[in-house]
Design a protein that fits this description.
Keywords: Signal. Helix content is about 25%, strand content about 40%. The chain is α+β, with helices and mostly antiparallel strands. The chain has a domain at about 35-120: Gamma-B Crystallin, domain 1, CATH 2.60.20. The strands form 2 sheets. Strands 3-7-5-6 form a 4-stranded antiparallel beta sheet, with no helix packed on it.
């Protein structure tokens, strides 16, 4: 009986660990293609490109102050833009592909954003 309870506890622990690891990795379907790019511009309406990054699901990326951006990713999802570095401060979501190109952050939100986090569609 004690062996059965110990084995049951071990299996339950393994299940919890596997679930946590799977969740942190974002599941198994987070593929990004080489055509997927996030472009960041210093000026409104896509002027003065200063940074291009490949989307990294669930990771905070600090890019510097941007007044406009273009979020191209074939899978869709949500890009959360943050006021401060390290994905902190005021945040606004952009749903891809419906609203994938914020053109004038000062006019639309009253701030310049500095970091982003991409959450792919399930």
């Amino acid at each position: 009986m004690n062996t059965f309870i110990s084995l049951k506890s071990i299996l339950a622990s393994f299940l919890v660990i596997a679930t946590v690891v799977y969740g942190q990795c974002g599941g198994s379907n987070t593929s990004i293609t080489s055509d997927d790019k996030f472009k960041f511009f210093k000026e409104p309406f896509y002027k003065e490109l200063f940074k291009v990054v490949n989307p990294s699901p669930y990771k905070c990326v600090t890019v510097g102050k941007f007044a406009s951006a273009s979020f191209k990713v074939s899978r869709g999802g949500v890009v959360t833009m943050y006021e401060h570095s390290g994905c902190s401060g005021v945040s606004k979501d952009r749903v891809i592909p419906q609203s994938s190109q914020p053109g004038h952050n000062i006019k639309d939100y009253g701030i310049l954003f500095r970091s982003i986090r991409y959450t792919p569609s399930p």
